[in-house]
């Protein structure tokens, strides 16, 4: 059995920052990632980040992933295992993981769960036709492997993911026939929407997809308008010929390990669904388990990185490492999170967090 101070599960923006911070305070860290590449969703993100210098503003996600990995690699007290899928958490505090076709058991003093989120699906007739993808799959094809998903795309969802992926497809030479949004207003940042509109892409608010059609693959989709009560209005259908329909209707936190560990969970729709109840230091109701990133509530990658730093510092400090450092790291992290969640764009997050602790 492997023993260590802290196990970090997930090598995305939150997990990498948690490992770096905990290691910098002196803790021995084992970082487990089920994929073969580090960085999580960062490796798909070719756009430049907002925020401050501390949050890698003006850097592209793919470059941030490389920088975080290089930083973690510099610490001799960080061990990283890629292709390692954590299978279960047991009542004695032991976890199991599959790694290179072998099962390994691990006992850590503290765990930081940074498993991220999964894409939500959308039910509509013929949604299983080839050519209908989740936005994450389209980003992986296009930005990681350099493979275009098709020639003409209809995007479903105008949150930041839908807007950013649409723009990335335009940059890659794919025609975007339109963006469909069921809500009466665009969900993502208007700065992203403005770039899409300047490229001549229509954004259909208060519309939904009625059905996709095609024989061996998707050949088009019918969209239709919704009234103020979200009911479809007959006679408003628009036929849009496309060979790709991309679904970007939100994310769901990947919380299976937290349920298994007995962490108290709460349904908070503003944060993506069921998320763990935790304190300001990101400690769950199981005192040896911390959370960071999308698994603790869906937010932007910048917030995930800050949460990772806070969780890593809190876990290391609880084991007696980094004397005197935790208070300063905590103060800076909480200030950055408050800034990221400020203003109209952060209203949904603030409301969700209020429900979580209420």
Automatic annotation (TrEMBL):
Residues in FAD/NAD(P)-binding domain copies: 5-308
Extent of the signal sequence: none
Gene3D superfamilies referenced in this protein's UniProt entry, alphabetically: FAD/NAD(P)-binding domain
Organism domain of life: Bacteria
Any Pfam family the entry gives: Pyr_redox_2
Keyword presence, Iron: no
TM stretches of this protein: none
GO molecular function: oxidoreductase activity
Key words, A-Z: Oxidoreductase
Protein name per the record: NAD(P)/FAD-dependent oxidoreductase
């Amino acid at each position: 059995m492997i023993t260590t101070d802290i196990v970090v599960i997930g090598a995305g923006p939150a997990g990498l920052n948690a490992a770096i911070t905990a290691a910098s305070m002196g803790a021995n860290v084992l970082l487990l990632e089920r994929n073969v590449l580090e960085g999580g969703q960062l490796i798909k993100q070719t756009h430049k980040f907002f925020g401050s210098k501390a949050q890698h503003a003006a850097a592209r996600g793919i470059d941030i992933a490389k920088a975080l990995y290089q930083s973690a690699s510099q610490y001799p007290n960080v061990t990283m295992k890629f292709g390692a899928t954590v299978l279960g958490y047991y009542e004695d505090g032991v976890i199991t993981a599959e790694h290179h076709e072998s099962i390994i058991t691990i006992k850590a003093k503290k765990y930081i769960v940074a498993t991220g989120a999964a894409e939500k699906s959308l039910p509509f007739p013929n949604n299983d036709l080839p050519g209908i993808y989740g936005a994450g799959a389209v980003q992986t094809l296009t930005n990681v492997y350099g493979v275009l998903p098709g020639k003409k795309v209809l995007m479903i969802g105008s949150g930041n993911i839908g807007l950013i992926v649409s723009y990335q497809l335009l940059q890659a030479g794919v025609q975007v026939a339109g963006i469909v949004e069921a809500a009466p207003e665009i969900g993502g940042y208007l700065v992203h929407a403005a770039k899409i509109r300047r490229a001549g892409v229509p954004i259909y608010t208060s519309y939904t997809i009625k059905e996709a059609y095609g024989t061996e693959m998707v050949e088009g989709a019918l969209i239709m308008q919704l009234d103020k009560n979200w009911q479809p209005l007959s006679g408003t259908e628009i036929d849009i010929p496309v060979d790709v329909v991309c679904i970007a209707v939100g994310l769901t936190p990947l919380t299976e390990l937290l349920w298994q560990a007995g962490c108290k969970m709460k349904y908070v729709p503003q944060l993506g669904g069921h998320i763990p109840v935790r304190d300001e230091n990101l400690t769950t109701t199981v005192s040896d388990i911390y959370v960071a990133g999308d698994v603790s509530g869906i937010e932007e990658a910048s917030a995930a990185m800050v949460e990772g730093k806070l969780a890593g510092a809190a876990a290391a400090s609880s084991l007696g490492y980094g004397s005197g450092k935790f208070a300063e790291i905590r103060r800076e992290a909480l200030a950055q999170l408050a800034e990221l969640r400020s203003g109209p764009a952060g209203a949904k997050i603030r409301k969700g967090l209020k429900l979580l602790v209420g």
